[in-house]
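Q: Structure tokens for this one, please.
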Amino acid sequence: MNDQLSLPRRWYSGITAYQWLVLVLASLGWVFDVFEGQLFVAGMKEATPAVVSGTPTPGEIRFYDNVILAAFLLGGAAGGVIFGMLSDRIGRKPAMMFTILFYSLFTSLSAFSQTWWQLAGFRFLVALGVGGEWAVASTLVAEVFPQRSRAWSQSIFHASSVFGTFLAIAAGRFIIAHPVWEIPLPGGTTSMAGWRVAFLLGAIPALLIIAVRSTLRESERWLESRAGRKGRSGAGLADLFRGEVCRSTLVGVSLAAVALATFWGTHIYGKDKMAEAAERSLSSSDESVVKHAEMLGMLLVTIGGGLGLLSFGPFADLVGRRYAFLVFLLGGLAASLILFPLVHTQEVLYLLLPVFGFLTLGMHAGCAVYFPELFPTRLRGTGVGFCFNVGRLLAAPILVVTGWLDREWKLTHDTTAVLLSSLFLVGVAVLFFAPETRGKDLPE
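A: Here is the predicted structure, written as tokens:
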């Protein structure tokens, strides 16, 4: 009996029904968050040419793709900081509701874009909510779950993102792949491009606000922190650069910048390898078959990525946060250097794309696990939002520059992806300055 009592408790032991509810709702918010973001990835080959005037060259299309992606990253940076600070001031629950409303509304409005700058502008506004939702939801999960369960719960939360990508893949396969849809309206029917119909579906996640409003309670840690401040104003951005917190802020921003730049510049192009292989095997340009191959590639990368996200938390509990980041950073670099310059056949891609996704995406769960552990409660929403989303801000110009190089130097996707994969080494260097937080409770 004594031996049984001395056994460590499983991470899920004693977790209440309400704590599970928080994890489910936070994850749903993140699922739809990612769905809104990945819709453009699934439909960029159709959407960008449709909003660029004239007959753009492939290099020009890649340039505008990167400009629109950069606008999304800039919006995410602004949204993460704004809503992160807002959550520290007005609470996690209302801030989360605002973020869901933002990304649902502006994704649906993206369907009516007529120029590339309109689409980029709407993507910026979508990202305000996308960046904010992750910051608020990850903070809420961290504050509701006990220390022994935090890494697991945060990995599950972040890994739920793959369902958002699955939804985007389904939209790409079954909606975007159909060039034209006939939409019934009260006065008759109207024709609408498939990618526009997919964006219209972005309004659906707004229904989640009802569940958040009716079932979630405010974070007790936040309520206690507010009571302890005795009416004083909440934390400001300047507090992130004072004392020991400054080191945490710089480490968090740097890791997020590496994660996001390699995601948008390397990870998302894994799917294109399958499309390119299909084009070569067909010796023709059957757009329907190539699109299906592209979505298959995206699915394989996403499945591997989801397993990587799920694995990060338990692995970080086993070896520590810093060593877990190290393994995924070096693994992501190795997978990119093998996939892009060396692999060109579909048979090998079936095996390698899930491994590539696992290694290039897994470290993103580390941001959800690690960042809340770096900041005290009064600064947690601000710090988490600032780190992850200023990482977007730093990643944006990298994408614009590489898009310009694609256009001016005629670089291929493979070459660009390999160049950006070198950023994994920057993340390795950052780890020398990162504090280890394994086994420690959230700082108050």
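A few notes: The longest helix spans residues 17-51. The chain is about 75% helix and 5% strand.
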